[in-house]
Specification:
It is built from four helices and seven strands; from the N terminus they run αβββββαββαα. It is α+β, with helices and mostly antiparallel strands. A hairpin with a 6-residue loop joins strand 6 and strand 7 (138-147). The protein is 25% helix and 26% strand. It has helices at 32-40, 101-112, 152-158, 163-183; strands at 46-47, 52-58, 65-72, 75-85, 95-99, 124-131, 138-147.
Amino acid sequence: MAVTKAKAPVASTKATATPKPNTSGKGGSVSWDDLLDNLKSGSGNFIYPKDGKTRLRMLPTEPLYTEATSIYQGNPRTKYLLAAYDPEAENPTIKVVVLTKAAFRSLVAMITEGYEFFDLDDGFGITIVRSGSGGDTSWMILPSRKAISVDEDIREALEDFDLLAQAKEYEESQKRRAAEGKRKKGSSEDGDDE
């Protein structure tokens, strides 16, 4: 099966200089909550829910989700990939949220209870709450209080979005990271905790 590269808007990975926040309390303030939220979910095409809260709006694709293999400390792990975006972002773009089996199970449990997360007009947003790390990680999925209609720009970008191509890109990046990890003994596997 031939897979084409997704044409959805992609967050720029180019590094840009930003002024350091004024932390002295004089002449300005820093929104530490906003800064923390920006540091949690990763960059690029993928969202890796980190400790705390990650707010998302799920998007309907064909298929709705796909499985992919990641490598964590030399061991293969199944991840579940779904299209999503942050409706509170200044410039929202479609990304792929990477969920562990436990987090995906929580999402599926909500769906079986009757929550609609994929309808473009009447779907609910979700907040993924993660705490802990390694074998002590716990996941909770909370629905938004009301439906969140998907922005028109996101709807248009969704027409060309290819979840399977993104999954292929994810698996290739995992293979590269695993190969680099073998060359650099003791390197951390950031962004892929169970």
